């Protein structure tokens, strides 16, 4: 697939984000998307062809591979990248809605259509919650599907049609393990950034609302 759409989406959201949000976009674009395209995709490209078992029983190798790799790492990462990036579309759509509303009424309805306030702030907070939720769900999914964040050198398989317990070998396990740890670490970093931005925005606008009420009360 072409990753240009995802790049354009992240670039478009950048101008509506806070400082922490821009760091999140940089981490996703540089440390996840570019690493995925430049290196990780090639490492797992021939994972099925390079998966070898010490027996030539027809069907045994395919069944064992399907058991230990029910979903390809690389396809799951691609899905994760798409899912954690698409909530940002909510912000883009909301800004577009504001701009179209101003055009329809032919007057200035907002100080700035892209300013984080009111309904747009709620949309932005929802997008942060969704992104954090997707990150956590995919980390749990990875852990459950592969019994932890590890790539073993050798797996033992006794599933039919294998006649007995056979040894199967995974190609480039050390290299895959390094990239797996790197991608899991960047995913955790994105969760921390999302939660930090969420806390910052909630705290900032809570203080703002409190000050407004205080000033009105004093008046």
Structural description of this entry:
By secondary structure, this protein is mostly helical. It contains seven helices and three strands. It has a three-stranded antiparallel sheet, covered by helices on one side. A hairpin with an 8-residue loop joins strand 2 (154-157) and strand 3 (166-169). It is a multi-pass membrane protein. Residues 134-201 form the Connexin cysteine-rich domain. Belongs to the connexin family.
Q: In angstroms, what separates the terminal alpha carbons?
A: 60 Å
Describe the sheet with the most strands: 3 strands, antiparallel
Category from helices, strands and their pairing: mainly alpha
| Individual helix count | 7
Approximately how much helix is present in the residues? Answer: 55-70%
Strand content: under 5%
SSE string = HHEHHHHEEH
Mean of pLDDT: 81
Which strand order spans the largest sheet, edge to edge or round the barrel? 1-3-2
CATH evolutionary superfamily of the domain at 3-49 and 71-128 and 173-217: Gap junction channel protein cysteine-rich domain
Structural Rg = 23 Å
What name does CATH use for the topology of the domain at 3-49 and 71-128 and 173-217?
de novo design (two linked rop proteins)
Assign the CATH architecture of the domain at 3-49 and 71-128 and 173-217. Up-down Bundle
Strand tally: 3
What is the overall shape? elongated
Uncertain runs with pLDDT below 50, 5 residues or more? Answer: none
CATH class of the domain at 3-49 and 71-128 and 173-217: Mainly Alpha
């Amino acid at each position: 697939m072409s990753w240009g759409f995802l790049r354009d989406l992240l670039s478009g959201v950048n101008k509506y984000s806070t400082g922490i949000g821009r760091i999140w976009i940089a981490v996703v674009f540089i440390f996840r998307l570019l690493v995925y395209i430049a290196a990780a995709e090639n490492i797992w490209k021939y994972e099925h062809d390079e998966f070898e078992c010490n027996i030539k029983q027809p069907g045994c190798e395919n069944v064992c591979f399907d058991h230990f790799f029910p979903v390809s790492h690389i396809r799951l990462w691609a899905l994760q990248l798409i899912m954690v990036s698409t909530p940002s579309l909510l912000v883009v759509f909301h800004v577009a809605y504001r701009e179209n509303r101003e055009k329809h009424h032919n007057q200035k309805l907002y100080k700035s259509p892209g300013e984080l306030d009111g309904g747009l702030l709620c949309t932005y907070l929802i997008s942060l919650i969704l992104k954090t939720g997707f990150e956590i769900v995919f980390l749990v999914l990875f852990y459950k599907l592969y019994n932890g964040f590890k790539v073993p050198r050798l797996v033992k398989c006794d599933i039919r049609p294998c006649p007995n317990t056979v040894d199967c070998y995974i190609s480039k396990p050390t290299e895959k393990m390094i990239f797996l740890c790197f991608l899991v670490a960047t995913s955790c970093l994105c969760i921390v950034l999302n939660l930090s931005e969420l806390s910052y925005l909630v705290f900032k606008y809570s203080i703002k609302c409190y000050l407004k009420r205080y000033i009105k009360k004093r008046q």
